[in-house]
Design brief:
Blueprint (H helix, E strand, L loop, with lengths): L1 H31 L5 H23 L2 H21 L6 H46 L5 H55 L1
Length: about 200
């Protein structure tokens, strides 16, 4: 009986030692393996939000109106070529040049928008995965900052390109709408002059 009491005490002592030893190991492991990159993951999470917002802005752009403006410029410039045997006046030339410049800016935006609409969702997914992996310490320490730097650079470039394109559209569409009636009026004068 005394022997069984000693065995029970020994088992209890061993159990307590195992229990506290496990707690000590777990606390040491969890302290060492907490999120190692809190600033980086916060930056990635912010970038994801900005990328999503940028994607929404690109989707909401009225591309049909932009294409209509571009087509108007193309038709006008073709008519100028057909109607002018001599050079047009300096003022008329400047109006047609400004009109052509709006076309170039708007076409550039549309071609970049197509690429951006493909690349931004990919970047969102990459940023999200990297943030998750960094939060859970799933990335090798040697590679973590390389991956982080690459994804931040790529996302920032996409955001900046989209921002510049959207700003150009915001400026060029109203300019196109201002110049269009002047260009149309000049075309009508050229047509009337040709008839006389």
């Amino acid at each position: 009986m005394i022997h069984s009491i000693k065995i029970k005490r020994t088992i209890k002592a061993a159990g307590l030692i195992l229990f506290f030893g496990s707690l000590l190991i777990l606390s040491t492991v969890s302290c060492n393996h907490g999120p190692s990159y809190p600033k980086e993951t916060a930056t990635l999470d912010s970038l994801k939000k900005v990328l999503s917002s940028t994607d929404s802005m690109l989707i909401n752009v009225d591309s049909l109106n932009i294409r209509k403006c571009i087509n108007h410029v193309i038709i006008t410039l073709d008519e100028v070529k057909m109607l002018t045997k001599d050079t047009v006046t300096r003022g008329a030339g400047q109006i047609f040049k400004s009109f052509a410049d709006t076309k170039w800016e708007l076409q550039t935006f549309l071609s970049r928008r197509t690429v951006l609409k493909q690349e931004i969702p990919k970047s969102i997914a990459q940023v999200e995965h990297l943030s998750h992996d960094l939060k859970n310490n799933l990335v090798n320490k040697d590679s973590a900052m390389i991956f982080y730097g690459f994804e931040v650079k790529k996302a920032s470039e996409l955001i900046e390109t989209a921002k510049l394109g959207l700003a150009a559209v915001k400026m060029q569409l109203p300019l196109n709408e201002i110049i269009a009636p002047q260009a149309d009026s000049l075309i009508n004068r050229l047509k009337n002059h040709q008839r006389t």
